Amino acid sequence: MAGYVSGAGSANVGPRVVAISNQKGGVGKTTTAINLGTALAAVGERVLVLDLDPQGNASTGLGIDIEKRFQTSFDILTSGVAILDTVLKTAVPNLFVVPANNDLVGIEPMLAADPNKAFKLRDAITAMVGQQRSRDPETHFTYVLIDCPPSLNLLTLNAMSASDAVIVPVQCEFYALEGISQLKDSIEQIRATLNPRLEIQGVVLTMHDQRVSLSREVAANVRAFFGSKVYDTVIPRNTRIAEAPSHGKPILLYDYDCAGSQAYMRLATEIMERERRFKAA
Predict the structure, then answer these.
(1) 3-state secondary structure of 167
(2) pLDDT value at residue 13
(3) Which letter does DSSP use for residue 112 in this model?
């Protein structure tokens, strides 16, 4: 984080890069990437969501039709296309996206012989920061949120090699803790071998239903395992959150007043406060 200065228009040396990752699917990674990005943009940050999942759900959820994804994260990783040449605007001011499509499915065999294969995204982000130095500071990204696929594959390794931190969404349902210790071990291994600055920024509890004893039990177990890494903010199980992606909108645009929207705004505030404490330490 050294040298990072948050805030739109600041003379930062680079964005805060955060991977949103969990090896288990269906835990709310993409929903968190989309809505956290929207909430950060709403409070003045300039945010880039980088879709690194072959399903391209973050792109879809931000209203990017498949036929408009002319250049994608696949092109960045395989052809050296500059990130800034792939960036698309969304309907949210200050929120942008690098789209993805199922071309990413074939990434591993394409890069198998490349000795730099785990650092393609890191190098692309470094190049982007260099490009932005010559541009108006008002156009600099202050956050890059990477939506990872639900597995520890080459795409996830690229995301974590490029990131300052990881946010881990954990679903408050049965089997939620399955693989959590494995993910923590994987992050420690990446710290030791690929990216010594990588940290778990926080763990966010998703799809929580306070009325259900299992949700409360899972939440308690996650807090016992991760301690203070778990955010106070909990994302509730909310029908409006589930509906929003089919309309190509973040929940804050689809229904600002619903419980899900307000939870993501609180989460963004909590994350930024945690970032401020980290910088001050």
Answers:
(1) strand
(2) 64
(3) T
176 DSSP assignment: T
pLDDT at 16: 94
DSSP 3-state assignment of 104? helix
Ordered structural domains, the chain, with CATH: 16-280 (3.40.50.300)
Strand partners, 208: 236
For 55, the token pair is 């399903």
Helices (H), the chain: 29-42, 57-61, 73-79, 107-111, 120-133, 154-162, 180-193, 213-226, 239-243, 251-254, 259-280
CA separation, residue 51 to residues 105, 117, 244 (Å): 13, 18, 18
Q: pLDDT digits over 171-207, tens only? A: 887 777 776 777 888 899 999 999 999 999 999 999 8
The answer to whether residue 14 scores a pLDDT higher than 90 is: no
pLDDT band at 1 (very low <50, low <70, confident <90, very high): very low
CA–CA dist 155, 53 (Å, integer): 8
CB-based contact 173:180 (threshold 8 Å) = no
Is the C-alpha dihedral spanning 202, 205, 210, 215 positive or negative? negative
Question: 212 with 176: CB under 8 angstroms?
Answer: no
Which structure tokens are listed for 218?
């899972």
Residue 12 scores a pLDDT above 60: no
Q: What is the pLDDT of residue 11?
A: 41
Q: In what order do the strands lie in the sheet with 199-208?
A: 88-89, 95-98, 47-51, 143-147, 16-20, 165-171, 199-208, 230-236
Q: At 10, is the secondary structure helix, strand, or coil? A: coil
